[in-house]
Specification:
This protein has 17 helices and 25 strands. The strands form four sheets. It has an eight-stranded antiparallel sheet, covered by helices on one side. A seven-stranded antiparallel sheet has the order 5-6-7-8-12-13-14, with helices on one face. Strands 17-16-18-19-20 form a five-stranded parallel sheet, with helices on both faces. A hairpin with a 4-residue loop joins strand 7 and strand 8 (166-172). The protein binds 5-amino-5-deoxy-1-O-phosphono-D-mannitol.
């Protein structure tokens, strides 16, 4: 949570560079934002509450060094004062931060003896004042490293020093990546690559315990504890500039929904060896556990059904509920984390807990260079490219395609499964288009004023229903509750009133008739039944027809929910890319 971006180079529009790049990190938090830069030997600062979106910088200043921050509040309300950067008393250092400094009260108490003047209620501000004190006896790099070593918790900080015209960054548990453009002699530091993808795809992902010193001459990487210099491990990413731009779409969310035929296909082409290796581990293991949070937890639920079809029993947990069950794991267990960002604190904590019991670990992750990638024994990168909208779409369908391949690989049917994904990709690209959008928009007109909606599904369509409901809730703020079709008559059917929109997710499978019976029960109580399926039925008042792809029909059913959520959100005036209160990677417990 919170986005960090910094620039040093030959260009003299550094404030605009960080301001524009920050917009691509807003998915990390958007309560408030701020930038700092050096203007004629003076450290300048500008801070605002609200989204950076359509804001403008109040003044155009020519300078070649700047940093910027977008905030998801943890300590202190959403005010200009609490927005980052935070300065020391001498206005020499500007600090931005991502994480939570768990011992900031003690650190502040220690500092109060030195009469520092605080302007905010944040945990971050203590860092600027601590550095100020350390600078009395040492240089900026050592001072920042020593202060960072005294912080407890998962943190990433970045300090701009006016005197040395340098930027010092430190990482422990919160992501930071540096970008090198040696040709134009410009250097970047960010929480995530999209911020600077426009300029370079040559990166070094900082490891926990690593720090960087960035000056106009380049980037040096250090071990924070020993102070020793480390060689940068520069990777060239295969991401394209267009991955971080809207390309004519009004929102990243819509662009990412429409990218799915391509991203699903890509995921099926890249991980053959890793999938086969993990399938072997799964077959050898006595216990197979899938964990994740939010949409990734629903993905784990899909996994449970897919593996069951392949004859493998799995356990699934929302990662935040895993700890009490970790003690039942041992070296014969495999725990698989599922995550878009690879930085979700609850999933990382659960994996670390499992590791204590000697399990084997794997992760199915989208972002590159993540903490999860480094934590587990085996990584399966899904290759969906940067997902910028806060709400997850293409990452889920790529994770799902990967789980499908994995489950089929465990029964020796990898090649057939790969062909099925290729067919799916073709069908989806023909189906996803203007006609589908128009049908969904027509449907929305009939239901958008309802504050409660219900979604049902069974077997593979149950996690699809959970995800469908979550997309509606996240993007339109409508209460959309999902149930298994079987649960309805055990209580929740009391909620149905005349005209209540009820989405019924179905496939041409062995439970089709059971699901239609549930639809009929809903209809009998006045529910307005909207089928999400490849077939028509007299039970449906409306139908969004999805491609008939056997067990892979769930992909179309999920995508229909993504589009419904998107258009409902737009029509109700919500910002589909940045839903209220949410952050994309939840890096706090
Ligand atoms: O980065 P992760 O996949 O680990 O994130 C997990 C959840 O926080 C995420 O899926 C969240 O539920 C999104 N808001 C879903 O749209």
């Amino acid at each position: 949570m919170c986005g960090i971006f910094a620039y040093i180079g030959k260009r003299t529009d550094a404030p605009e560079i960080v301001f524009e790049g920050l917009k691509l990190l807003e998915y990390r938090g958007y309560d408030s934002w701020g930038i700092s830069y050096i203007d004629k030997q003076v450290l300048k600062i500008e801070k605002h509450t609200g989204k950076i979106g359509s804001s403008k910088l109040s003044k155009i200043t020519k300078t070649n060094i700047a940093l910027a921050h977008t905030r998801w509040a943890t300590h202190g309300g959403i005010t200009d004062e609490n927005a980052h950067p935070h300065l020391d008393c001498k206005n020499q250092i500007a600090v931005i931060h991502n994480g939570i400094i768990e011992n900031y009260h003690e650190l502040k108490l220690k500092l109060s003896k030195n009469n520092h003047a605080y302007k905010s209620e944040t945990d971050t501000e203590v860092v600027s004042h601590l550095i100020e004190d350390e600078l009395k006896t040492k240089g900026i790099r050592q001072a920042t490293f020593d202060v960072f070593m005294s912080l407890n918790g998962s943190n990433a900080i970045c300090a701009l020093d006016k005197n040395s015209q340098s930027i010092i960054a430190c990482r422990n548990g919160s992501p930071l990546v540096v970008g090198f453009d040696e040709i134009k002699k410009q250097y970047f530091l960010a929480s995530d690559v999209p911020a600077f993808l426009k300029y370079t795809n040559k990166v070094h992902f900082l490891e926990d315990g690593e720090g960087a010193e960035i000056t106009k001459d380049g980037i040096e990487i250090f071990n924070i504890k020993t102070g020793k210099q480390i060689n940068a491990k520069i990777k060239t990413l295969d991401w394209q500039l267009e991955d971080a731009e809207k390309n004519g779409y009004p929102h990243f969310l819509l662009k990412e929904i429409f990218e799915q035929p391509k991203t699903i296909l890509k995921s099926s082409l890249i991980n053959k060896d890793a999938i086969k290796k993990l399938a072997k581990i799964i077959k050898e293991s006595k216990k197979v556990i899938l964990i994740g949070c939010g949409t990734a937890a629903y993905c784990a639920q899909f996994g449970k059904y897919l593996f069951a079809q392949s004859g493998i029993q799995t356990e699934i947990y929302g990662a935040y509920e895993f700890k009490p069950f970790a003690k039942f794991c041992d070296k014969n267990s495999v725990v698989i984390g599922i995550s878009q960002s690879g930085e979700t604190a609850d999933t990382l904590i659960a994996l670390k807990e499992a590791i204590k019991y000697g399990v084997r670990t794997a992760a199915i992750v989208n972002s590159r260079g993540s903490t999860m990638e480094r934590l587990v024994d085996l990584i399966i990168p899904i290759g969906a490219g940067p997902e910028i909208a806060v709400v997850s779409t293409k990452a889920l369908t790529s994770q799902l395609a990967t789980l499908y391949l994995l489950s089929k690989a465990s029964e020796g049917k990898y090649l057939q499964a790969k062909k099925n994904i290729q067919k799916l990709s073709n069908k989806l690209s023909k189906w996803l288009g203007n006609e589908l959008s128009e049908n969904i928009i027509k449907l929305i007109k009939k239901i958008e004023h309802n504050e409660h909606m219900y979604v049902i599904g069974k077997n593979l369509n149950y996690p699809a229903a959970l995800e469908f409901g979550l997309k509606i809730k996240e993007t339109s703020y409508i209460h959309a509750e999902s149930f298994t079709a079987g649960e309805l008559k055990h209580g929740v059917i009391t909620l149905i009133q005349k005209g209540t929109p009820c989405f019924v997710l179905a496939s041409n499978d062995e439970v089709k008739n059971e699901v239609l019976s549930s639809a009929s029960e809903l209809k009998a109580r006045g529910g307005k039944i909207i089928g999400i399926s490849p077939f028509e039925s007299p039970e449906f008042n409306d139908l969004i027809k999805t491609p008939d792809m056997g067990e892979l029909t769930i992909f179309g059913n999920i995508i229909a929910g993504q589009l419904l959520g998107y258009y409902l959100g737009v029509s109700r005036g919500a910002d589909p890319d940045k839903p209220r209160n949410l952050a994309k990677s939840v890096t706090v417990k």
